[in-house]
Automatic annotation (TrEMBL):
EC number(s) from the headed UniProt entry: 2.5.1.9
Organism: Streptomyces carpinensis
Protein name (record): Riboflavin synthase
Protein function: Catalyzes the dismutation of two molecules of 6,7-dimethyl-8-ribityllumazine, resulting in the formation of riboflavin and 5-amino-6-(D-ribitylamino)uracil.
An annotated Gene Ontology molecular function: riboflavin synthase activity
Lineage: Bacteria, Bacillati, Actinomycetota, Actinomycetes, Kitasatosporales
C-alpha cells in the first residue's frame, strides 16, 4: 500500500522492448536505499516490482496490459517519474490509501497559474466520474491530491509550489497523459451497496 506522497522525482534511464512487455531502468537514490529483488516501488502511481538493483538504479518489468492501460507506455529514456516506496505498517498516512493499481488515464487539459498555487484541469474517463467528488481524494501520477471541482468529464486540482517543484505535475503540459487511481473506498462502497440492492430484490 502507498499513500500518494511522492518521495522523489526520479528518471527513466533506459527502456528495453521485450515484445509483449518492456523492461524499465530507473534512477532513484532515495527509493533504492535498501531495495531488494521483489520489492515494490510505485512509478507514476503504478506499483512495479524490483527485478534488479544496482547503485541508485533499479529495473522493473512492465507487462503489455500495464503499458496499454497506463501512461507508462509513453515513457522514454530521460522521462521524469514520481517514485514512492510502500508505506511501513504504523507509519503516518500522509495522503490517502493508494494501491498502485491504475484505474485509467486522463489528459492535462489546462493549467491556470496564480501567485501561490496553480489550478490544473484534467480529463476524466466517463466510467470513473462517479468515484470523483468535490473535496474527495484522487491519485494523479501517484500523487495524492484533493479534488477542487468535479464534472462528468473532467476535474481540477490545486497544486502548491512544493508539488510543482518535486513531482511530474510541475512538468506536465496540456495534452500530456496522466495515470488516475480513484479512491478505493468509493469502489468498495459501490460494490457493497450494489450487492445489498440485489439481495433486497430477491
Amino acid at each position: 500500500m502507498f499513500t500518494g506522497i511522492v518521495e522523489e522525482l526520479g528518471e527513466v534511464t533506459a527502456v528495453e522492448n521485450l515484445g509483449d512487455a518492456a523492461r524499465f531502468r530507473l534512477r532513484g537514490p532515495v527509493v533504492t536505499q535498501g531495495a531488494q529483488h521483489g520489492d515494490s516501488i510505485a512509478v507514476n502511481g503504478v506499483c512495479l516490482t524490483v527485478v534488479e538493483h544496482e547503485g541508485d538504479e533499479f529495473t522493473a518489468d512492465v507487462m503489455a496490459e500495464t503499458l496499454k492501460r497506463s501512461s507508462l507506455g509513453v515513457l522514454t529514456a530521460g522521462s521524469r517519474v514520481n517514485l514512492e516506496r510502500p508505506t511501513a505498517v504504523g507509519a503516518r498516512l500522509g495522503g490517502h490509501i493508494v494501491q498502485g493499481h491504475v484505474d485509467g488515464t486522463g489528459t492535462v487539459l489546462e493549467r491556470t497559474p496564480s501567485e501561490h498555487w496553480e489550478i490544473v484541469r484534467i480529463s476524466l474517463p466517463g466510467d470513473l466520474a462517479r468515484y470523483v467528488v468535490e473535496k474527495g481524494s484522487i491519485t494523479v501520477d501517484g500523487i495524492s491530491l484533493t479534488v477542487v471541482d468535479a464534472a462528468a468529464d473532467h476535474f481540477t486540482v490545486s497544486l502548491i509550489p512544493t508539488t510543482l517543484a518535486l513531482t511530474t505535475l510541475g512538468l506536465k503540459q496540456p495534452g500530456d497523459p496522466v495515470n488516475l487511481e480513484v479512491d478505493v473506498v468509493a469502489k468498495y462502497v459501490e460494490r457493497l451497496l450494489g450487492d445489498r440492492a440485489q439481495g433486497a430484490g430477491k
